[in-house]
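Per reviewer request, we include the raw input and output of the structure prediction for the construct analysed in the revised manuscript.
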Amino acid sequence: MKQSLDDINITERNNELNIAMVPLIVPPFTFTSEAVHDEVCPTATGYRRPIYSCQISNPANRQVSHRLDFYRQRYSHYYNKWYDPIKVDGTCSSPSIELALAPGESFNYHFDGYRCLEEPCGDPDNWGCDPGIPQNSTVYFWLQDEEGNRSMGVSVFRGE
């Protein structure tokens, strides 16, 4: 007789009971409807901020959990230079999320690039646009889980 309980295989044969732990592979989420555009920063009108959205879905037949981080990478047209990818993070507020989805469930992720930058967050002077979108740049944004699985990524261009 053979039974399987998700990550445990139990086999009974000839009055022996063999139990083997099978590593459970956590499938990645799928990312669709990814979009980004930029808007003027409400606290500093000379700056632009990203408005990013993405639908995250669980294609697996069981509940799946992942930590998703928000990344950006910038290309400067002025310097003809790529800058290293950066995880957008912060001590007060972060666009990163811990997400658990049931089979077939989806979540609409939204990040508006306007957040608390330092404590206390109740003080409006501590809010700002981060990450900003510099002039003469194309900035790419994407979501990425703890295993390195990522969305396709979308970009926004800002001229002079």
